[in-house]
Amino acid sequence: MPHMLALLFLAFSVVGAQAESGASTARAIQAPAQNIVTSNILELITIPRSSTTSTQVAGLAKRAEDDNGTEAYLSTVQGRIYLASVTFGGTPYTVVVDTGSSDTWLAKTGFECVSPTTGTSVPEAQCAFGPLYTPSPTLIEIPGLEFNISYADNETLSGTLGYELATIAGLSIQQMVGIVDTAAWYGDGQSSGLLGLGYPTIDSAHDNQNISGYSFPTTLNYTPFFATLCVDAGIPAMFSLALTRVTPDNPTGGGLLALGGIPPIAHSPTFATVPIQALSMASANPSAETPSYQFYIVTVDGFSIAAIDPEGSQDDSRKLPLAAAPGAPTQNATATVDEDIGGPVQMIVDSGTTLIYLSDSTAATVNSLFVPPAVFATGPEVYVVNCSAVAPKFGVYIGGHLFYINPLDMMLETELAGTCLSTVQKAGGGLAVLGDVFLKNVLAVFDVGAGEMRFAAREDY
Ligand SMILES: *[C@@H]1O[C@H](CO)[C@@H](O)[C@H](O)[C@H]1NC(C)=O
Ligand SMILES: *[C@@H]1O[C@H](CO)[C@@H](O)[C@H](O)[C@H]1NC(C)=O
Ligand SMILES: *[C@@H]1O[C@H](CO)[C@@H](O)[C@H](O)[C@H]1NC(C)=O
Ligand SMILES: *[C@@H]1O[C@H](CO)[C@@H](O)[C@H](O)[C@H]1NC(C)=O
Ligand SMILES: *[C@@H]1O[C@H](CO)[C@@H](O)[C@H](O)[C@H]1NC(C)=O
Ligand SMILES: *[C@@H]1O[C@H](CO)[C@@H](O)[C@H](O)[C@H]1NC(C)=O
Q1: Which residue from 12, 194, 241, 283 lies 20 to 30 Å from 152 (Cα-Cα)?
Q2: Which residues are catalytic?
Q3: Measuring from each residue's beta carbon to the nearest atom of ligand 2, which residues come in under 6 Å?
Q4: Is the entire prediction scored with pTM above 0.85?
């Protein structure tokens, strides 16, 4: 992927991977779990701009230094990542909630911080972690295992592995976690690590007796956090996410992660249901041609895109089903282009990715329909747009349902006043991703046991 201005926590394996086309879908090991509201709910937080801490500033400053100023100009701080509190060894830690990777890890006291771009040792504060993990009496370290992970934006972490007592949303398990002692990381000043909710095939534990075993994707395939919850805490094999955007009325944003059910939020009564699809790693590693379940990949049938004429004089409620966003000049708008484009395409559903990444041509179409159009900035290699532009009406077709993206989610403020980042960007040859921009508009059910995902539109909130 090109320069990531918003954090992108996808395990690195996605680069060069090919989604299986056609029939291969996740093997259902049980019937779909019911969409029942559960009490095992974890409240998620985002970091609003107003609470930017000095350590966060240090993280941003580091980007500016590393990237000669370009990246800081594009870094967004609003609602960029979703965090939750999980207790390890009796102490609560804030962690990033990521459906695009499978390891759960914590940065350990005394870790070494290195620059993601130069690999050289830098002051610990530049990694901008929250409180660091101190090994507790309940940690059982496992000799001979090494934790070593890279994410798609070149952040890398390594260390040891051990079993630790973890408590999440009222459920307690003993879980294999990575204990990080070297980190190349763009921290947020609050989180101490990451909670990976993906499949075991993309975990990053290695047996360091067999150094040749490092070649990806050979890993130990240990039981990751969510699978342990199902097996040891006995919850139904599904979890669901309802991410909430940051708005002036709700400056903290946040959301809910429900384990074994759905959260108590308003949503459409109808769900789109689609199978989770397998990924072939053949292009990344010829010995791994057998497709396996790694990310939450679904087939998107296509996209609906319509430019909104800000001078429009009629209220066309058919073409503008979304409630007008506060302050957005759409009340009188008319759609000037209304077409279905860009599908079918396989997309990763990833809470650890902020934006939506589409094929270059689909991204170009969407960006051309902002008024005025978003422009592709060479150098940072991203679409930027005037913050006072009118966003197109953009919808994603999944399983026969059309999910609109609220206009509020179509742009993100950058460090440069008046210049926004379009939230629909080019995948640049990589797999397409539905990140938080999409997830903020739906209740997303990850029914791992049945090998399917279900989506229901959120009521306007
Ligand atoms: C970085 O900044 C220096 C000084 O302004 C400039 O000469 C150089 O071309 C820049 N490098 C890049 C990659 O932009
Ligand atoms: C992590 O794994 C890569 C290969 O995947 C290897 O090149 C690198 O040396 C490892 N890093 C550490 C710190 O062991
Ligand atoms: C990651 O590092 C590689 C090699 O240094 C570089 O080619 C690539 O552009 C980097 N990717 C990002 C997202 O910075
Ligand atoms: C190293 O790998 C070989 C071949 O895969 C295997 O037979 C051996 O048991 C491994 N050694 C250890 C210590 O796991
Ligand atoms: C919007 O529509 C209303 C009534 O349909 C009209 O009175 C008003 O002038 C219109 N506003 C603009 C900016 O066109
Ligand atoms: C954005 O558009 C507004 C209104 O059209 C204009 O006043 C402003 O100069 C533009 N900002 C930038 C950064 O181009």
Answers
A1: 241
A2: 98, 350
A3: 148, 158, 182, 214, 216
A4: no
